[in-house]
């Protein structure tokens, strides 16, 4: 909000849009948007921030997907893609599904073997062996 007001103040004092954009640190087109917002709605129009952020089609199935993956976890992203396609009919790529699952709060856990320390004595090595000694 501060940079918007600064840009308008600079324009009011006679600076060009290009110079105001350089001072504020934004693009000239951004300063033009600030002016248009102020012209259309005054200070309230300048305060309002409505970014164009489209919502994913999968967002409508958010609860269904989360419940399904909580009840029966998947092992890979490809398996998650297939499960989402079966549940919703929406085919999405691995990177989109990975981001969606991260936004749901799910984490992929790496599965590895648990290292087991070797036993101290094996039956085959615990037999007494004949000792060799030098004859005296």
Give a written overview of the molecule.
By secondary structure, this protein is mainly alpha-helical. Helices cover 53% and strands 0% of the residues. It contains 6 helices and no strands. It has helices spanning 2-12, 17-24, 28-47, 62-71, 77-88, 94-104.
Observed structural traits:
136 residues, mainly alpha, 6 helices, 53% helix
Average pLDDT number: 84
Number of strands: 0
- Number of discrete helical segments: 6
Distance between the termini: 100 Å
Give Rg in angstroms.
33 Å
Overall helicity: 40-55%
For the biggest sheet, the summary is:
none
The ordered string of helix (H) and strand (E) elements is HHHHHH
Strand content: under 5%
Overall form: elongated
Structural class of the helices, strands and pairings? mainly alpha
Note poorly predicted spans.
Answer: none
């Amino acid at each position: 909000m501060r940079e918007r007001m600064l840009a308008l103040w600079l324009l009011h004092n006679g600076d060009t849009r290009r110079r105001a954009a350089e001072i504020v640190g934004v693009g000239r087109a951004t300063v033009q948007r600030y002016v248009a917002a102020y012209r259309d709605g005054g200070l309230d129009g300048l305060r309002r921030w409505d970014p164009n952020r489209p919502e994913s089609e999968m967002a409508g199935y958010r609860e269904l997907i989360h419940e399904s993956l909580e009840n029966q976890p998947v092992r890979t992203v490809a398996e998650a893609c297939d499960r989402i396609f079966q549940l919703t009919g929406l085919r999405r790529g691995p990177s989109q599904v990975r981001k969606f699952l991260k936004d749901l709060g799910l984490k992929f856990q790496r599965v590895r073997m648990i290292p087991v320390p070797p036993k101290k004595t094996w039956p085959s090595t615990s037999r007494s062996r004949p000792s060799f000694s030098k004859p005296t």
